[in-house]
Design brief:
With 189 residues, this protein is an alpha+beta fold. 51% of the residues lie in helices and 23% in strands. The protein folds into two domains: 2-143, Jelly Rolls (Sandwich); 144-189. It contains nine helices and eight strands. It has a four-stranded antiparallel sheet. Strands 2-7-4-5 form a four-stranded antiparallel sheet. Helix 4 crosses helix 5 (117-143) and helix 8 (166-173) crosses helix 9 (177-188). The longest helix is centred in the C-terminal third of the chain and has 27 residues, at 117-143. The protein is globular, with a radius of gyration of 17 Å.
């Protein structure tokens, strides 16, 4: 929980009292590699703070996985639309390594936020950070070539290049695995 508390303090001022009010909404959960934090079709009822490991968000399009995001330590994984609108999730979130998360239960979080305005502020700031990350990723695909997207990941998300398989990374970048191999070869020479 130390990492979570540091994450919270990076967003807002948070006293011991606020932390105590937040505790009922939090549970530590463990997922093995391949386990689902959220399945497509389920309604997302939590925010998942990644303490250890990483997970991916992906769509199944005609039996092919299309990776749209990766969540590493000290990030929050969720489906904002499903979480907020109570709609079934169009994508899945799956652990790619043995993963430990702190789960923020939606109903308990809303109840805590109703009693403590600082928790409401925290929730809003977490969702803003998630939305900002999604906006950055959307810009990658609208403004950059595949080679530029790879260079951006190299500079800003090196852990992604070290930990994510080539197949998943090529899917995320929207290119064939062979194209990714050529880009990597050019950049290393």
């Amino acid at each position: 929980m130390k990492n979570l508390l540091a994450y919270i303090h990076s967003l807002t001022t948070f006293s011991e009292q606020h932390w105590e009010h937040l505790q009922p909404a939090l549970t530590v959960e463990y997922y093995g590699k391949g386990d689902y934090l959220l399945k497509a079709g389920q309604i997302c009822d939590a925010l998942f703070f990644i303490s250890r490991g990483y997970c991916r968000a992906y769509y199944d399009k005609d039996g092919v996985d299309i990776n749209t995001d990766f969540f590493f330590e000290d990030e929050i994984a969720t489906n904002i639309n499903s979480y907020g609108r109570r709609e079934p999730s169009a994508f899945a979130i799956q652990a790619c390594e043995d993963t430990e998360v702190v789960r923020f239960d939606r109903e308990q979080l809303l109840a805590a936020a109703a009693r403590d305005s600082q928790i409401e502020t925290l929730g809003r700031l977490c969702l803003q950070r998630i939305a900002a990350k999604q906006e950055k990723h959307a810009a990658l695909f609208k403004l950059m070539s595949a080679q530029e997207r790879y260079a951006y990941l190299e500079e800003h998300y090196p852990e992604m290049l070290q930990r994510v398989s080539l197949s998943q990374l090529s899917s995320f970048l929207g290119i064939a695995r062979e194209t990714l191999s050529r880009i990597r070869a050019r950049r290393s020479s």
